[in-house]
Structure formats: structure tokens, C-alpha cells
Design brief:
The protein is built from 15 helices and two strands. By secondary structure, the protein is an all-alpha fold. Among the domains are: 120 residues, no CATH class; 134 residues, no CATH class. Strands 1-2 form a two-stranded antiparallel sheet. A hairpin with a 5-residue loop joins strand 1 and strand 2. Helix 11 runs antiparallel to helix 13 and helix 13 packs across helix 14. It is elongated and about 130 Å long. The two termini are 13 Å apart.
Length: 432
């Protein structure tokens, strides 16, 4: 169907509709006035009948045959177009003239802004993202602080139990030694961070191997990794070794010393200094664990990350309740991603990236103001920001953008066709 034909026809129809609406209003006013006069005349007739003693129910009324007007013959689409052109002439017509400014703004917001793979934020989205980032920065400063000064970390650590618990008696492992180990800097306070078996992440590989072969895999203060003989194996097969590894980690994580953060032991192998520090990365990582940067402090450091989640999810939930058009936009994004999870929404991903960027900027500022104290660094917050940043880079790749754009445009076109309430055999068919 040519766009010019549709534009001319609809514009002409809209003009006629406006004229008819005015005539109907005037005719309605005349009918109302005539009806009032008839009601008054009918009341007078009933009064005369009452005085003359005539029963109105037995009076005969002349019955007029009902005249049914002839219905106009339906016109074909081409006839409608020809009549519209004859009336409109060659004057330019624009479909936008049929819409109000409010309707145009709604279409512009829902379709034009969304007819790409990018998710554009409005000012309220940006305000919510900034508010979430500032909230996280404040939580990082007031709640997280440093391990020894954090009230939440100390409260969690008060729930710890003794190292000699019943689970540790069951899950004996060869790498759990505290002395007489050929590793520089190795002592009872650092034996967990200097053995890979105690690492909550690396331990599933190195700890399981040590259990099966009766060894101790550790790292010295200078970053040298060694595999030392430590006794007979404590498990005969892999399933048993994994079970012992799991029980031993649980028995240690609930003790006052806790465990190092997942993957933390790998940092001890870096024998290079950064930022002009006198200590190497390995030495700083080892010292941070000794000073409380462990699994007890991990839930506290996760508070700013959870704060961002709470603010953004609360905002999206409330906004959808109050703004129907906003909810429809998010429904399109859900169709686009094929997921109902809030975290998968492109709009949420962009907002989370902004909020986490503000939060890590605040954490970097706190690190600088503290004299580069490594204990002020928020490990989970930086990991969350890295995840958002790398995800945004992946979505920005040309191939991903093209595929995402094609899928989004298809969904919007499908939604647009469904919203057209037109059902007539006279309209031209579109054949693909």
C-alpha cells in the first residue's frame, strides 16, 4: 500500500469526521430542545384527557410505518482513494497531523527511541542510577570501613567457633600444617593463606590433589610455589577427596581466622610492587589476610553491592506500577532478551554500570584519602563493576549489536501490527 494513498485517505477521512462531529453536536442540541417541547405538549394532552374523562390507555393512536433509510453501497479501497484525492487535491498530507502532541510524544518514546539495540535511559532512570551509586558509596564508607573498625564484621566474627571442632576432627587433610614447612614466612597465622588447599576457589583443585597424594601445595613470601610431601593420602578416590575438601573448608571458615577470599592465594605469587609501594603484591595480600581481610569481612564488603541492587530493583518495580508506558517498554525488553529476570534487562544493565562506576569511584577516593591503605579496597564492589564493564564491551561488538538490533526491530514491528485494529476485505493485501 503506497504511503501517499494512505496519508491522503486518512487525512481526508479525519477532516470529514471532524465536520460530521460538529454537525452531530448541533443536531443533538436541536433534538434535545425538540424533545423538551414534545414532553411539555404531551403533558398538556394528558391534562386535557384527564379533564374530559378520557382514558389514555384506550385511546387510539395513529401508527406510522417505520421508514428504514437505504444504506450506502460499500466502496472499494480504490474508490475511497480516488474520492479522497478528488477532495484533497495534490496538497501534501502527513499522518502526524492526525495525532495530538501527546500521542506523538508517546510513539516517539516507545518506538523511535527503542528502534535500536541501545537502551536509552530517561532522566528518572539516570537519577535512580546516580542515587544507587551514591548510596553504595556511603555504605562503603560507613558500614564497610576496614575489618578492625567495621561493626558488622566484628558482629559476624563473634559468631565464630573454636578451631578444634568436631568437623575438623573428621576432615583431616595433609596440607593443614602450621609449622615445620619449607616455605618462607610460613607460620600459624599465615598457613591458610599460604596453602592453596585452603583457598575457597583454588582449593577444589589443589586441595583435592593434595588429599589424594598426601602433599602440601603452598607459596612462599617471595611468591615461589612448592609442592611438599606431607604424609599419606587421606582419601582413596576422587569423590571421597572432594567430600573431605568440602568438610575441611566448612570447618575452617567458621573459625575466628576464617579463610582467604576466593582466588586470593594466587595474588601471593606476584612478586612485583605497584603504585610505588615498598611491598610486593604478594606481601600486601598476605598482610591483608592477617589483618582481617578474609571471609568474615566478605559479607560486609558485599553490602554496597546489595544496596545498588535494592535501590535499582525498587525503582524499577515502583516505576512500572505508576507508569504504564514504562512497563510496556520493559515488556518489550523482556521479549527481546527472552528472560523475565530484572538483571537481564538492557536498561537495568546500563543503570547498574552507572551505579557501580560511581560506587567504585567513591571507593577509589576512600583508598586515596586513607594513604593507599589496601584494607579500604572493596573487592566484591570492584568485581561487580568489572562484570558490568566487560558485559557492556561485549554488547558493543558490531556482531552483537547487529543481531540485537534485528531482533529488537522484529519484536517492535510484531507489536505494532497487533495494535492495528483493521479488519476489512477492501484493504489491499501485502504479499511477501
Amino acid at each position: 500500500m503506497p504511503d501517499t494513498e494512505l496519508a491522503v485517505t486518512l487525512t481526508f477521512t479525519a477532516g470529514e469526521h471532524g465536520s460530521l462531529a460538529t454537525e452531530v453536536e448541533e443536531l443533538s442540541a436541536e433534538i434535545s430542545e425538540t424533545t423538551d417541547r414534545l414532553d411539555d405538549a404531551q403533558a398538556r394532552v394528558r391534562e386535557v384527557q384527564r379533564r374530559l374523562g378520557i382514558d389514555p390507555t384506550t385511546s387510539q393512536r395513529s401508527q406510522r410505518p417505520r421508514v428504514v433509510p437505504d444504506l450506502p453501497t460499500p466502496q472499494s479501497w480504490q474508490e475511497v482513494v480516488s474520492r479522497s484525492r478528488a477532495t484533497m487535491g495534490d496538497a501534501p498530507a502527513d499522518l502526524d497531523d492526525l495525532l495530538t502532541q501527546k500521542e506523538l510524544a508517546s510513539i516517539e518514546r516507545r518506538f523511535t527511541d527503542g528502534f535500536t539495540a541501545r537502551s536509552r535511559l530517561d532522566r528518572y532512570d539516570v537519577i535512580a542510577a546516580v542515587a544507587a551509586g551514591v548510596t553504595a558509596a556511603m555504605l562503603d564508607y560507613l558500614v564497610v570501613a576496614v575489618p578492625k573498625e567495621s561493626g558488622l564484621t566484628q558482629a559476624l566474627k563473634s559468631l565464630s567457633t573454636d578451631s578444634d571442632n568436631w568437623l575438623s576432627d573428621i576432615a583431616k587433610v595433609p596440607y593443614d600444617r602450621v609449622a615445620n614447612v619449607d616455605l618462607s614466612g610460613f607460620n600459624p597465622h599465615t598457613h591458610r593463606v599460604q596453602t592453596f588447599g585452603h583457598d575457597p576457589l583454588l582449593g577444589w583443585v589443589y586441595g583435592t590433589m593434595d588429599i589424594l597424594r598426601g602433599s602440601l601445595t603452598g607459596v612462599s613470601r617471595s611468591g615461589v610455589v612448592k609442592v611438599l610431601e606431607s604424609g599419606p593420602p587421606t582419601a582413596a578416590n576422587l569423590p571421597a577427596a572432594l567430600a573431605i575438601q568440602a568438610m575441611h573448608l566448612v570447618s575452617d571458615v567458621i573459625t575466628p581466622a576464617g579463610l582467604q577470599l576466593p582466588g586470593w592465594s594466587a595474588l601471593l605469587t606476584i612478586d612485583k610492587s605497584i603504585l610505588g609501594s615498598e611491598r610486593t603484591v604478594g606481601e600486601l595480600s598476605r598482610l591483608m589476610y592477617v589483618r582481617g581481610y578474609d571471609t568474615w569481612h566478605l559479607p560486609t564488603m558485599a553490602v554496597p553491592v546489595l544496596g545498588i541492587e535494592a535501590v535499582l530493583r525498587g525503582y524499577l518495580g515502583l516505576r512500572q506500577m505508576l507508569d504504564e508506558e514504562y512497563r510496556e517498554e520493559l515488556d518489550i525488553e523482556r521479549l527481546r532478551t527472552g528472560s523475565n529476570r530484572v538483571a537481564d534487562l538492557p536498561r537495568y544493565e546500563v543503570m547498574a554500570l552507572i551505579a557501580r562506576g560511581i560506587a567504585v569511584a567513591g571507593n577509589a577516593g576512600r583508598f586515596s584519602l586513607s594513604g593507599a591503605n589496601p584494607l579500604t579496597l572493596n573487592f566484591p564492589l570492584w568485581m561487580a563493576f568489572a562484570k558490568s564493564f566487560l558485559g557492556s564491551l561485549d554488547r558493543a561488538k558490531p556482531a552483537s549489536t547487529m543481531v540485537d538490533t534485528a531482533n529488537m526491530n522484529r519484536l517492535i514491528l510484531d507489536a505494532g501490527w497487533v495494535s492495528l485494529e483493521i479488519d476489512s476485505d477492501d484493504l489491499p493485501e501485502i504479499r511477501l
